[in-house]
Structures are given as structure tokens and as C-alpha cells.
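Quick illustration, no need to memorize.
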Amino acid sequence: MAEKPWGGRFTQKTDDLAEEFTSSISFDKRLYRCDIKGSMAYCEALAKAGILSREERGKILQALKETEEEIERGEFSFSNCWEDIHMHIEQRLQEKIGEVGGKLHTGRSRNDQISLDMRLYLKEGVLSILDLVKELQTSLVKQAAKYINSIMPGYTHLRKAQPILFSHHLMAYYEMFKRDRERLTDALRRIDVLPLGSGALAGSPYPIDRDYLAELLGFAEISQNSIDAVGNRDFVVEFLSHCALIMMHLSRLCEEFIIWSSAEAGFLHLPQSLCTGSSIMPQKENPDVLELIRAKTGRVYGALVSLLTILKALPLAYNRDLQEDKEPMFDTVDTVKNSLKIMAKLLDGIEVNQERMRAAAAEGFTNATDLADYLVLNGIPFRKAHQVAGKVVQYAEERDKKLEDLSLAQLQSFSPAIKEDVFDYIRIESSVDHRQTIGGTARQRVAEQIKRAQKELAC
């Protein structure tokens, strides 16, 4: 068995089971680009500090570049023997250029290396997710503009409440995902902090220019406490938390699309290319994509709880427990990106049954509040108007009629304040357009929401 880089004080060979159990290369090898990028920058910093000669610097940089190319071509050999991506790359350097390769670890620890790699990885991951959330918002706005005049029932307690525009409902999700983008953008500030140069926990005894490192690696800030720098995973927890919210928002949208696309609702059709069939029932078009996004939300919740549990009683600074932080992070990045991609594609392909939506919005006395509002506008206190409207609803329900199907005489039997213009006031279209407050469902207001969103997305 090859000698471990840390094996100087050991007299016993590492047990094979322990070697396999402690190895992280099976999952942290995906950090190789980040690790090599950090190593190249650190090589430059060592050269600037006079620790590496110009010739040694050149050899190390060339060997790192060749190693990256080997990994990308699939020619690199990974083994549990070298535990993690850091030791694999260091070992390959020494195979290529001998003892000079061992100089790269001067003043550096795997503790600040992994923190650096994770921050570099998350910076890229967050930017990708931000782009995908924006694409989903674009799809929402596109469909909202297309169906600007489509009326549907709005719900509270999953019971019909008031008529709203379908576009207004879609724009509610636009706002939810807007907050997600804001949170992730803010989280980038705390990810964008350079830990390299912190060493194992106490800093470096060598004159490493951390400002220079930050400039080379594109970090906006430098960590101010070496202990915190190597033991801190708050930035990962925060990322997972924001991703949990993204998945929760996706899951809510999925649930509504599943309900709306059912035969019982019939509000919309999902693209067949994103549905699946049944192995036994030939008529089925199952919303499996939506169901899987809904289920994968639990995976992201689990990743967040997993890391919080790892950290909850962990003493400073670095502990091997932190090896378990990467798989939840990797899985979350993959899950969120894939879910956003396919949700945007599905949204682009929906077909809305506007007639069915309009008919459903006219059922269930969704204009009852408008009758109460009409009475208020004619001098009746709201609580009294609410009571009158409730009695009218009961009267109509007993006769299997809608409010607008009652005669003027029937309505006036409940209140003399009701006049002929009530029928125009309680029309479904009128009900929608009465909601003129900023953020309301009136067509004019929703058109303003869409226009504002289009400007935001163009930035």
C-alpha cells in the first residue's frame, strides 16, 4: 500500500475497512476543477512569497494543468488509498514532477482547501440556479401574458372563494420565485469569502498574500478568523435553506397543476411529452414529472436537516464530521437545477381550458362578496350587508340557482337597496375588475404586474 502523506508518525498500516470508510473520493472528485483552480492560485501566492522559484512555479502549474486534462479525459485513476480529491491531485503532482510537487502544500491544510473548494463550487452552483429560476419566472410571465383574460376560481381552504385571473395566480408564483432569487443573491455575499490561507485553524507562518489570492480567485472578501474559516459551514446551511424554499414553491405549483389537470377540474392539459402512461390502464396520462418534483422536495429538506444535525454540537475548528457536508450539497444542487429545468419546460407546454375555468369560477357563489360590496356602496354597513348576502346565498342554493339567476324582485325581498344595476355588478368579469388596488386581480393591475416583471427579467 502506498505511503500516506500524513503517515510519518504512524507505525501501523491503515486498515482496509477504515480506509474505505473514511474515503470521500467517490463524491468529492467532482470538486477537481475547484481544487486545481485553488491550487494554481496558491502556487502563484507561494511564488510571490519567495517560497517557490520561478522554475518550480512553472513545473507545478503545468503539472496541475495536465492533471486536470487527465481527469476530464477519464484517464485519471481514483483510489480510496488517497482518501479525497486534494490528496489525489497532490499525489499526481509528485508522480509527475517529484518532490517539487510536495512544496505546494506549504502552509496549506486540507481544512482550508475544502472550504475553498466548496465556496468555489457553490458560487458557480448558485449562479446556475439563479439563471434557472429566472427562466422559470420567464415562463410564468409568458403564460400570464397569454392568458391575461382567463378567469378562474380563486380558493381559500381549497374551497371556491372569489373569481380571479389565471394570470394573477401565475404571477403569485413569479413573486415567490423573485424572493428566492433575492435570497440566493444575498447568500452569495457570504459564500464569496476567501478561506484559503487559514491553514489547519491557526493561519499560516508564511508570508502568503491573501489579498492577492482573493484577486486571483475572484473573491470579494477575505475571512477574518482562521478558526471560523475552516469550521464554518453556515454558508452551506443557508444555501440549503434557500433551496428548500425553492423546492417548496415548486412543490406547491406542482400540486396545483396536478389538481387542475385532473379530469374533475379540467382547467388545463399537461404536455404529453412530459407525462407517462400506465402499464395496465391504457387511458392514463400521469403527471409523474410533477409528482417527482413534489417528492424531491423532501430530499432537499432532508439535506438541510442532515447538515444542521451534523453541525449542532460540533466543537471548533475542523472535525471529520464535516466530510458529510458535501453529499447533501451536491445532491441539492443537482435536484434543484433539474427540477427547475423541467418545470419551466412543462409550464411552456400547458394548454389552458379557458371555458372550463370560467364556468368553474361562476359556480359556488364566488360573487357573493360582490353582492355584499354592492350593498355597502348603497349605504348598508358591511356586517349587515354580509348577513343579507349570506341569506341570499342560502335562498338561491335551496332553489339550485346562481345569484345572477334570481329576479330583481327576489333580490329586493332581502334589501330594498338592491337595484337593477346589481346584475352588472355581480357579473364574474365585473367581480375581477373591481379589485383595483395595487396587487389586485383586476385585468389592469395584472397587466401592470406582467409589465413590471418583464422589465425586471430584462435586467
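The mean pLDDT is 95.
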